[in-house]
Design goal:
Helix content is 49%, strand content 18%. By secondary structure, the chain is of the alpha+beta class. The strands form four sheets. A six-stranded mixed beta barrel has the order 2-3-8-5-7-6. Strands 13-14-21-16-18-17 form a six-stranded mixed barrel.
Length: 773
């Protein structure tokens, strides 16, 4: 920050003396305050660019007005002479560049590529990390989590130690703590089949308590209104549409507000359309519905919370007071000692992308450094060729300052030409960065070349042009006529070493990029070649949205309703399995590599202590369909997949080692929820949550025996699974007209999605490396 203030203070000399004396100190203080408020080095650089740009415009206007006033009095001012000298230098620089078109073109292109890459990356960083959230008083918006030290060090649930979800009674407890929040909202995921406005289709929904839009985010809908507490009390038969879904499904028709559509068998009223800015990172949904309030289970953790801090309350104060309230309200049978964590919402949303974006920004600036090195080498070479010319000018009376100013003018002109080209290229580069960005980068679609990014690019170009123009300017402004004439090439060993130092530095930076790109490429290759321990290349994943209420129509007892839903799933499974080329079909509660989660506290014979394991509800034949190796005992069979069957459990190899290091797992007692049964088999650990590490602590239960009737399908093919997709779609739609196919993709596509973020980084760094080379 001190360097930026010092640079600004130095540039104040461009102002007329009188204006500088009257307002200079105040202007410096304003810059110091704005730099102090800026976030991070890039934010400070952006703020400094804005201030320097304003100073340049102000100084030009003041000087021009002052010169006009003096000329009106018939006096030739020093400012007029300076302007005339500058114009002469610019004309001379232009002629010099035209005389050497080859080196000039190479320098401009190299510099422009560096400016384009740096400016484009800055536009993404600015959109994702630097711009505040698009809500009123965004610094007061926070994410609120439960804190559970019992999960610390858990192989798959470690994040829940600091960022755990909430049960509804816990949320109600902390929501009502006085003086902490101006608003606290619970949110979760939902969905359903929407009828109206076109063919039936699955719509992804967010569920939110009444305060989310009115008190926490404080957003105004494009049309209509947001839902409130009265909507919840009335049964919650309302829906808010996102702007994107409203435009796609309803053709941006404002008349849909107030109309009624069917969501499954439920009639819901569209009460409003939310603007695109109302998007919450992590909740990429097409609409919002009110969250139900009838869940009194303290142990059912399924909610996330977003709040707005009360005026003057800090995050840690809020966390401490809510944690105390939570501890005091917990029922005796549910005392788990949860704490509370409160994080600024913007930092929380971007925690997973800050590191990668920082890495890519460094790579872009390294490329810029290489480009500047190229320019410096070319400028040094040009100065060597012109050494005799500079010596003659010095002998004719040109002072060192005059020669430095001439060489810097040439460098500055070159950098401005490169800046113009670079910013044009940056527009396309920014669009490419946005289009290629992996899922999960919040607000990356806001990246654009706006005024702030433009100021950054121009300032960066000018600073780089001046800094790297100083190398030949200072090195060749002390030119001696005699030594220049005596030397056969008009140069000296000292100046040759100067050029060599620049080349070495440039090669070092290019090597850094090449090594970084190679390491990232190796990471991507390793992930692509990672063995998930299941048959991904032969298997399809099918998600469907089922009109459950319509399936239960005409049934009287709970057993009849359960039988109707189960019969539907068995019908879908049988129809798919009858397709030629299908080897097998199974149902699972957790599709691999999709973020589906489920876990339970478990008990085990002979094991002392608390342990949480990943839970999977699966149908008979699941392990055969997925190609998961059975290491001991057997898998889930048809006899296990009945409501009246005993509790039989299959566990992962890692869980077996943890519970029973003696290696004898089959036949041991095992419990979850309020159920207890026995282990019938041990299967290999698989990578069904992330490719980087296996799911080592997992257990599998027959879905019907556990009361879990729904789920997603996994389909094993004899050959290319993609060839089965149209046949599967047709068979599924023939089962029931109300089914919506949410997704039908090979598991290899899900693996590719897992690698997308690493591939994005590797591609960019390799592109930067290629440009540097």
């Amino acid at each position: 920050m001190k360097a930026g203030v010092g640079l600004y203070r130095l540039l104040l000399r461009l102002l007329p003396a009188g204006l500088r004396a009257r307002a200079g100190d105040e202007m410096v203080e304003v810059v110091r305050v704005r730099l102090a408020r800026a976030r991070g080095p890039i934010g400070r650089l952006r703020a400094l660019g804005h201030e320097i740009g304003g100073l340049l415009v102000t100084s030009a206007r003041a000087r021009w007005a002052h010169a006009g006033h003096r000329r009106g009095r018939g006096v030739v001012t020093g400012w007029s002479e300076a302007m005339e000298t500058l114009l002469q230098d610019l004309r001379f620089a232009g002629r010099t560049m035209r005389r050497n078109p080859g080196p000039t073109l190479v320098a401009v292109l190299a510099f422009a590529l560096g400016i384009a890459a740096s400016t484009a990356m800055f536009s993404v960083v600015d959109a994702v990390l630097l711009r505040p959230l698009p809500f009123p008083e965004p610094d007061r918006i926070v994410s609120v989590y439960t804190k559970n030290p019992a999960f610390e060090g858990h192989p798959t649930l470690g994040d829940a130690a600091e960022r755990g979800s909430w049960s509804y009674p816990e949320f109600e407890t902390v929501r009502d703590v006085p003086g902490v929040m101006d608003g606290l909202a619970a949110i979760s995921y939902g969905g359903g089949v929407l009828y109206g406005g076109g063919e039936p289709e699955r719509v992804s929904l967010g569920l939110a308590s009444a305060d989310l839009f009115s008190r926490v985010l404080r957003v105004r809908p494009i049309f209509g209104r947001v839902f409130d507490a009265e909507d919840v009390r009335a049964g919650g038969n309302v829906i808010l549409l996102s702007e994107g879904y409203w435009r796609r499904r309803f053709g941006a028709d404002p008349a849909v507000v107030g109309s009624t559509v069917r969501l499954g068998d439920e009639a819901v009223t569209i009460v409003g359309v939310l603007p695109q800015e109302a998007h919450l990172a992590g909740f990429d949904v097409e609409g919002w519905r009110p969250l139900g309030t009838d869940d009194a289970n303290w142990g059912n953790h399924w909610l996330f919370t977003v709040g707005r801090l009360a005026e003057g309350v800090h995050a840690q104060q809020a966390a401490d007071r809510m944690a105390a309230a939570l501890t005091a309200a917990e029922p005796p049978q549910h005392t788990v000692g949860h704490g509370v964590n409160v994080f600024p919402r913007q930092a929380d949303e971007t925690r997973g992308v800050r590191g990668p974006l920082f890495l890519l920004t460094i790579a872009a600036f390294v490329l810029l450094g290489v480009a500047c090195g190229n320019v410096a080498v070319l400028l040094v070479g040009a100065a060597i060729d012109r050494e005799q010319e500079l010596a003659v000018r010095a002998a004719l009376g040109a002072g060192r300052g005059r020669l430095v100013r001439q060489l810097l003018t040439e460098s500055l002109l070159l950098s401005l030409v490169a800046a113009a080209l670079g910013i044009l290229l940056a527009g396309g580069a920014t669009r490419a960065l946005v289009l290629l960005a992996p899922d999960g980068v919040p607000r990356v679609d806001r990246a654009t070349i706006d005024g702030g990014v433009l100021a950054f690019g121009v300032t960066l170009s000018v600073v780089c042009g001046l800094v790297f123009g100083l190398i030949p300017a200072l090195g060749f402004s002390r030119t001696d006529l005699r030594s220049a004439m005596v030397s056969s090439r008009g140069t000296t060993g000292h100046r040759a070493r100067l050029q060599g130092i620049v080349v070495v530095g440039e090669l070092a930076l290019a090597t850094v990029l090449l090594v970084g790109g190679g390491l990232l490429a190796r990471t991507v290759l390793a992930l692509n070649n990672a063995d998930p321990a299941f048959a991904a290349s032969e298997t399809l994943a099918l998600r469907i949205a089922v009109p459950v209420s319509r399936l239960k129509r005409g049934t009287e007892s709970e057993d009849e309703r359960t039988a109707a839903v189960d019969a539907f799933y068995r019908t879908v499974s049988d129809r798919i399995e009858a397709i030629p080329g299908v080897r097998g079909v199974a149902i699972t509660s957790n599709l691999p590599l999709t973020g589906d989660r489920g876990n339970n506290d478990i008990t085990a014979e002979g094991f002392e202590g608390d342990l949480v394991a990943e839970r999977r509800f699966v149908s008979a034949g699941f392990f055969d369909v997925m190609g998961i190796r059975i290491l001991e005992g057997r898998g889930i069979e048809a006899g296990d997949d009945r409501p009246d069957a005993p509790v039989n459990v299959v566990i992962s190899e890692g869980l077996a080692r943890t519970l029973w290091p003696d290696g004898r797992a089959v036949g041991r007692r095992f419990g979850y929820w309020d159920r207890e049964g026995q282990v019938i088999g041990v299967v290999a650990d698989i990578r069904d949550e992330e490719l980087q590490s296996g799911t080592t602590l997992a257990f599998y239960v027959a879905r019907r025996q556990a009361g879990q009737l729904g789920g997603s399908f996994v389909i094993r093919a004899d050959a290319d699974p993609r060839s089965l997709i149209p046949h599967i779609r047709r068979q599924v739609r023939e089962v029931h007209e109300g089914i919506a196919i949410v997704s039908l993709v090979p598991l290899t596509d899900l693996i590719a999605d897992q690698v997308a973020a690493e591939r994005y980084r590797a591609r960019l760094v390799l592109v930067f490396s290629g440009l540097a080379g």
